[in-house]
## 1
Amino acid sequence: MNKKKSIAIASLVLAGILSLSACGSSSSTSTSSGSGSTATSNGTTEIKATNASKSPAAALARKDTLVVGLGDMNGIWSDVFTDSSYDHYADELMFNTLLIATPDGQANGDAADYKVSSDGLTYTFTLKDGVKYWDGKPATASDIEFLCEVMADPNYDGQLDISTADIQGFDAYKNGSATSISGIKVVDDKTIQFTLTTPNASTLWTLGQLPLMEKAYYGADYKKGNVKTVEDKLAQPMGSGQYKFVSYDPATGLKLVANDNYFKGAPKIKNVELSVTAQGQELQRVQAGEVDLEADATCSEDNVASLKKSGFINAYYYPINAFGMVQWNLQDPKYSDVRVRQALAYGLNRAAVVKQVYGQYATVTNVPLPTGSWGYSTDGTTNYTFSIDKAKALLKEAGWAINSSTQKLEKDGKPFVIDFTAKSGNAVTDAMLPVMKEDYAKLGIDVNIESSDFSTMLKGYNNGKLDACFMGQTLTTPDPDTSNLFMTGASQNFYKFSDKDLDALYQQEQRMTDTTKRKAIFAKINKLLNQQLPMMPIYQRNMIVLYNTRVQNVAKMGTFRDPFLDLYQYTLKG
């Protein structure tokens, strides 16, 4: 999906917006799923291979190269500009951020250590020793200041929004009434200090996810108002990360080589290739030996059984920090009445869709927040269990009626028609759309389906132009603040939802630093979003990571820490 904290991904896809990867789960804890499975305390279940000798010859022949399967990338190499979760995974290999999450969601220093003042107004980041870019130049605090100035540029239209961090002087610099951001101070080459106008609970993660981007490289020709000079460098990135960019082909994927000067230690595997995998083919490619690791295969009952039968495949699955949803175009009058949006939720058998695709590895959700998030709650919310009768009653209340001649739902002489844009070959929409057409037909609603490639679909979503579509929304940090999705005028509020009571609640939780108090506010936010339904939640799923037994020293992973972050530690056997 897009990002202050989330990216959208197209299903069997952000809150990257791309194609939603396929897996499912309903809680932050898990249990053993059978022989060879071990549940851990952080909700991650490990499935252990039973017969490494079955590993295909094609995989064993690769001695110094790890092939990772990944969905369609857009080739935008910087989280400051990309809106694709697949690009985000690649960026994790090429760039360091200031902070990184532990598997259980705690903040930990990545490229920097940090301190927060007792009054919550000053954040200090100190770069760690030895952090260098691929060209050998050391990372500096000035690089961080430069990136913040780019993101405060009035022409910056990326989706990593730091305006909500309440940095002193940010708005003044953006509107041109100041020539610098007064709340940002470069203390020395390695230390940068941020001063806020007010305590802000989400600021730590907002700043912590900033990637290191070398000012001398990206800013060589940059002047305020001309962000394009920075964007022009994105296709040939300069990072400090564990792997260095070699080449990219949209049809085949991305090639990387080890950064021998990586400050955490030179990667053990020389070459990494991110190979484009068609949705639904993730497990098959590992079984065939075409790829060594798939980071987001479909976590279904059939796939779990099949990977166990293969014998040579290890796996981890865990609740993903994301949720699947249907987005309606709220600028279309037919969706403007909340009763209509509620009727559409009641009128779709979401449980049947989730069961068909994921079985026990996903659950229907009615709140747009990952179930494993500490901010998740269902207190006072409505469970939109499938009911055609309730849907019909709500549509009638909203002024819609069946035309006796056509048997179609109409209002003011205009029929209710949904034009649904879907990525072809997507497991979720392949299952959902036939159910939607059948269920909504009982309400007198026609559903027209338009197939689209992911890039076109993503562009339409980001422009707020699609009548209806399915997306996965991934939160890129453990913080549950989703104001960038639903607050009036927010960076990722593409369909212009607005509710003054919701805005006030977001402002309240952002000004608190006490987690218990914030959690109480999130309960109210969840209740309001559940009632208003600016989008229709579909499910919470599990993410499953598959890897050949030849891949060893695989680091601990979980809801808040994916396998890409620690790839430099992995080794290959054989």
Note: The chain is about 25% helix and 25% strand.
## 2
Amino acid sequence: MSDTPLAPPLPLSAPAPLPARRQPLMRELLDLLASMRFAVSLLTVICIASVIGTVVKQREPLNNYVNQFGPFWSEVFGKLDLYTVYGAWWFLLILGFLVTSTSLCILRNTPKIIQDLRNYKEHVREQSLQSFHHKALGHMAGGTEAALAQVSSLLSGAGWKAKIQVRDRGVMVAARKGAANKVGYLAAHSAIVLVCLGGLLDGDLLLRGLMWAQNKSVYEGGGLISEVTADHRLPPGNPSFRGNLMVPEGGRAATAILSMPTGVVLQDLPFDVELKKFIVEYYDTGMPKLFASDVIIRDHDTGKLTEAKIKVNEPLIHQGVALYQSSFDDGGSELKLLAYPLQGGGKPVALQGRVGNTVTLKTGPNDKDALTLELGSLRVINVENMSSNSGADTSTDVRRVDLVDTLGKHLGSGARNPNDKALHNIGPSFSYKLIDAAGQRREFNNYMSPVTLEGQSVFLVGVRENLNDGFRYLRIPADDRASMQSWLNLRAALLDTPRRERAARRYAEMATPADKPQMLPQLQATAARALGLFAGVEKTKPKVGSAGAADVAASGSSAASAGAGASTATATAELQGGLPALSNFIETEVPAAEQQRVSEVLLRILNGSLFELYKISREQAGQTPPATDAQTQTFMTQSVLALSDSMFYPSPVLVQLDEFKQVQASVFQVTRAPGQKLVYLGAILLIIGVLAMLYIKERRLWVWLESAPGQIDTTRVRMALSCTRESPDVATEFEQLKAALLKEESV
């Protein structure tokens, strides 16, 4: 037998322990949904989603996201609806859960709060008052009734609400102050519900439901608004929408455009908006300081006309629809253009068109050589930062070429420099797109007037391949007549073989020493070769170390680092001319030990030959010979650089703005927001609730009055005070009450 003692038997009266009963699953889910932790978690997710919606531009064309994030991540972000965060199903679902959770919180706690507001807790025992932090014991002169009257008068004057309970041994006075603290809890939680409901009403949820109910679809095509069918139009009675309305001066419109991820939906308005005049005022620097629109509203039902002025932050509200001054655009300005051919020269072609239209531009005898010119926009005011900062590289070139230790940086743009700002209006500019027969398009942006940069007057001719990229500007020097014609004549002469040969002969005759006439043929051949390489018509094969090539290259330019992705190791035959072609020629044809000397000599020959070519172009244009002064030298330096970069200009023509007649258009944001009032009410309740919870403290006071034992006409008083949040002013308030009520005190 085992020696282990047996456990004593359970008494017969002791019941067997029962396993703990779990609450039903539905009850647990309901408790979780109504808990504060769940609501705070939802708020955190909504805040993160709002940050994403702020950082990632919403409702942009899908191509913009592909260019910004790449094909893979753009598709992933699209699947997550990050391009339409505030209308995404998961965002609306979270908002719905937040509304439900907060509403359950309010429903569960409101009865308790109301009951607590009605309860003064006058049933507290007098002995328990000794356990409070703030307590006092003393006496008051007079009987219990007199003391009660004095206490009631004092509390009423101090803003306390009290309830009296008469007991056998005395009287209990229960008072409270700051009950609005709990009302603040209800107000803050109700505000969250109202704001979320307002957001749901003004979001895409109601719009999508209406489109589904009326069998409307998103329009993914292009063309005129009047050509869009009724399948893509919403009726004027749509209760919630937010879109844009563009109205040109002298015109009117009644259809707003609602942007969707895959297209647009048109919203018909119950009235027409006619723009009488668009008003824009500028500061001295050219920065705008006022946008305003004088409009006439014409109701469709009554035909009533209403004149109004819409300003920024001063919207017009008509029939429940708010019109905000959002921005302004071109309303179809008339443009007169000159298209200068860059291949072989020739007279410019005059073109006319309106902003937003297309023009066909022929660049050759065949139709396949025709280009489609899309007139983009006209900007009459261009405010740019014209300060110079040699320490910052702000150039945005078509083709950046830096001559080593010789010329330095030479191309650039009117882009803003964040370090040193000097804002000036540099005049009108216009943008356009050129589309070739293969459908390839590039965007251009050219300034009408010359701009002074680094002391040189130049025309800025910009181009970009991608809409997300910045424009790269070619600087074309302006001549003494503020025109680019002299440079264009020089470029045409550079591409003409007889004039190149004539310029090379002139330079050789001028540069050949009188005592060495035998050098003239070699010097002429070298000058002709340099001009041919620079013009892109001379092609060489890479023959490193060739003696013959080294002799010809003995007058070459300094090694030039080809910008914009061109490599100095690329064969000249793959280049289009300019300084990179000379640079490649030096590196492939001249021994390394001789490259520096040869490049300096060849650069001098090139500059001298180009100057002779410039004089020939002026002679043929009927102009006087150029003066040999600093101004001409500056012009020639910039001309050489512009000629080099123009070899890589991705267009056979240069389109310049000649004249224009501006027609402005005003862009309005048109909204009907039924949830706006709910959001405003929620904002007010939120402010009230937060202020009530932060700055109002609930205090409860108990005063026990009883006859003092062994003393006639004396009442013994016991006091206690409690507060939801302790602070020094609570103790001060209690001390003031003690001093006002108690004659002598002992604790």
Note: The first strand starts at residue 134 and ends at 141.
